Amino acid sequence: MSRTAFRLLVTVALLLAPSVAFAHPGHGEGGSLLAGFIHPFSGIDHLLAMTAVGLFAANLGGRALWAVPATFVAMMALGGVFGAAGVSLPFAETAIALSVLVFGFVIFSGMTPPVLAAMALVGIFAIFHGHAHGTEMPVGGSGVVYGIGFMVATTLLHGFGITLGLAIRWFDDVPRRRAMQACGVAIALIGAGLTIGLV
User: Fold this and answer.
1) How far is CA 5 from the centre of its chain?
2) Residue 48 burial class via C-beta count within 10 angstroms: exposed 0-12, middle 13-18, buried 19 and up
3) Strand residue runs (E) in the chain
4) Residue 6 pLDDT > 70, yes or no?
5) What is the pTM of this model?
6) According to the model, what pLDDT value does residue 16 have?
7) What 3-state class would DSSP assign to 142?
C-alpha cells in the first residue's frame, strides 16, 4: 500500500461522514452508525490518543504515514469485536489512559523507531481502545454499522493529527522541534493525569 492508498482511505472516510449527519439515535442502523461515530469523540482519552497517532505517523513520514494509522484502525476493529462479544480485557481503561501518556512521550522525545515497531506500539494500545468502543455498543444495534462509525471517526482524527504534523514539518528546524515537543508534552501531561485519575 502507498500514500495514495492512505489518501483513498481518508477520502472514503470523508465520503461516509455526511451520512452520519442524517443518522438519528434509536433508528436501527442509522442509530448504530451515529453511536459508533460519536464514541471516539466522547472522551479526551480517545481524542488525544487518535490524534497523537496521526502526529506520530507524520513525524515518522514515509510509509509510516499510512501504515501506522491503518494498523491502529485494524487492531481497534479487532478489539471492538472482542468488546462486543463480551470478552473481558483486564486493565482496559488503564491501558487507554496509558496510551495517551506513551504516545505523548514518544512525540515529545522525537523517537523514530522502525515502522514495524511503531505499528506494533500503536496496535497494542488500539486493541484496548477498540474494546472500549465494543463494550459500549448500543443494545440491539448493528455491530458492523457501529464499527464502521467508530472506524470512520478514528480515521478522521488520525487525519487531523497527520495534517497538524505535516503542517509543523513546514517550520524551520528549531521551531518544528519545539512545536512537536509542545504537542507531545501537552498530550503526555493529560495522559499522566488520566493514568493517575486526576483528569
Assistant:
1) 18
2) buried
3) none
4) no
5) 0.82
6) 37
7) coil
Q: Say which residues have a Cβ less than 8 Å from residue 12's Cβ, sequence separation at least 6.
A: none
| End-to-end Cα, the chain, rounded Å | 38
Q: How far apart are CA 52 and CA 59, in angstroms?
A: 10
pLDDT of residue 199: 73
Euclidean distance between CA atoms 4 and 110, whole angstroms: 26
Say if residues 72 and 154 touch (Cβ distance below 8 Å): yes
Do 68 and 60 contact (CB within 8 A), yes or no?
yes
- Count the alpha carbons within 13 Å of 195 in the hemisphere toward its beta carbon: 15
Residue 99 grid cell: 496510551
Residues 30 and 166 sit within 8 Å (Cβ to Cβ): no
Label residues 152-161 b or e (16+ Cβ within 10 Å = b): bbbbbbbbeb
Q: How far apart are CA 148 and CA 27, in angstroms?
A: 16
CB of 73 within 8 A of CB of 155?
yes
What does the pLDDT read at residue 19?
35
198: amino acid identity, one letter: L
Q: pLDDT category, 9, cuts 50, 70, 90?
A: very low
Q: How many Å apart are CA 56 and CA 69, to the nearest integer?
A: 9
Q: By C-alpha distance, which of 97, 94, 109, 98 is closest to 184?
A: 109
